[in-house]
Design brief:
By secondary structure, this protein is an all-alpha fold. About 80% of the residues lie in helices and about 0% in strands. It folds into two domains: about 45 residues; about 55 residues. Helix 3 packs across helix 4.
């Protein structure tokens, strides 16, 4: 037989002896408590692994939104700085958006 199979069989015998030999009650006690805590961690009410995963997804999504809005704010700040510093762009913006006109000009709005 291959050496790895012998090692597996030896480990299996040790586990079997642990659950059937002397002080087997302790092995069963520990196993049941581990199963209980694992079950409650996965499927219990409240703070479970599935809630953690959902919270992490929500956290990533909100961070992406924060980054998106930061970029949008930077773009808007650049546009505002450009409009405030250059009279020609400010005048163009006022004419296009608010239909402003100089005194004596006729404004035609075509929709």
């Amino acid at each position: 037989m291959p050496k790895s199979l012998l090692i597996v069989m030896e480990i299996w015998q040790k586990i079997k002896k642990m659950y059937t030999g002397q002080n087997s009650w302790f092995s069963w006690f520990v196993t049941l408590w581990i199963l209980y805590f694992t079950w409650s961690w996965l499927f219990g009410s409240g703070n479970t692994i599935f809630h953690w995963i959902d919270a992490k997804k929500e956290f990533r999504s909100q961070n992406e939104q924060i980054e998106f809005y930061r970029n949008e704010i930077e773009k808007m700040d650049m546009i505002l700085d450009q409009r405030e510093s250059n009279i020609d762009t400010l005048e163009k913006f006022a004419r296009e958006q608010y239909h402003f006109a100089a005194p004596g000009e006729d404004v035609y709005i075509i929709e």
